[in-house]
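ingest -> validate -> predict -> emit
validate: passed (alphabet ok, no gaps, 417 aa)
predict: started
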Amino acid sequence: MRPPSRKGQPVVVEFSIYVVDVNSINVEDMDFRVDMFIRQTWRESRLQLPEDIFEEGDDHVTLPPEFFDNLWHPDPYFLNSKVTEIAELTHKFSSVTLYRNQTVRYAARMHAIIACQMEFQLYPMDIQSCPIYIESFSYSNQKVKFKWSDAGVTINPELKLLQYHIGEPLRLEETNGYMIDKDGNYSRLVVYFRFERQIGHHLIQTFAPSSLVVMLSWFSFWLDLDAIPGRVTLLVTCMLTLVTMFTGLRADIPPVAYVKALDLWMAGCMMFVFAALGEFVVVKVLDKQYQMNKSKAQESMPRLIPVRLNGEKGSCGTVAAWEGSGVRCRKVDLTSPASPPASTPAVHATPGAPTHLVGVERRQSILQVAWLDADTGQERVLWREIDKLSRVVFPALFLLFVTMYWPVLLLKTKASS
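emit:
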């Protein structure tokens, strides 16, 4: 039976925990393994110890763990432990210490697998808060009250984790929990472990390589459209590289129903590479349209051949153009090189023909995909201008994406901590 207490007050049992090691944090099963020393101390007023049991100058004595079976002891258990037989306090590695003032301290080393409800919205900069609940199984809070000792919970200073940093100080709570199956309130101790994921691994393995792949896709804007195999191979290879990279990353975390921070980065990188591939399709279509319009304009233009006719009746000093069997005659002053033509210059004139005699029809036919620069008079093609503009727009947009992604992620991480 439990020790008697004054005025029906519950027996106070003080707990302290020394964390030796955290073996692993399993995000797939959402649990973590912990090795620790747990100590529980209470006062046993019925304990009568002979004086000869203590050595001279000592106020306590350590007895074999089998002596613990002859004493009343609380029956704490880990409420959120997955493996209860491991989490029980056993005598394999334990000790019992008795003090002159009738205090009993029971210490044991134990290994437990603790379930933890993890959240991955900010992955890979997530911070997991994993509690351990210690509760009495048989005695309600009217009979037994659990309390943290002054030592509380301490962590081995030499403890190091691969991807996490254990935040300190730990948060300790003393609460009462209502258990439906036992129909009562039970004293409960809670310690919250704070696991902060270190971003260094993902910077090297994820963010830096994916950024380089996105930058590699921009090289296609400097390749001419004649290099179709090289341009397509470059962009498709970049897309497949990102898909393969992110597929491997998804295997490290459980499939969740919400969007993670890493998903946004993956979607952004793939969108930029896909946009570069779409840009290539657009400029290729525009180039094909330009070539078609150019060919039609050349076929519809009359061939201009310079001919000097004799000064007979009805004749004139002309440049004649034959269309089929007909001859058109236009008066020009062949002696004056500065004589203004009736038409606007155009490119790709028939060899031997003056370029200023090409008509307006051709310039209008390719107006949608090409035009003449008003300042230089040179022809400018639309698809070339899109490629030049993409060389600036794509890096600028990616820089904007990066400058928005990281500050927002850091602010949300700080707010969640």
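The chain has six helices and 14 strands.
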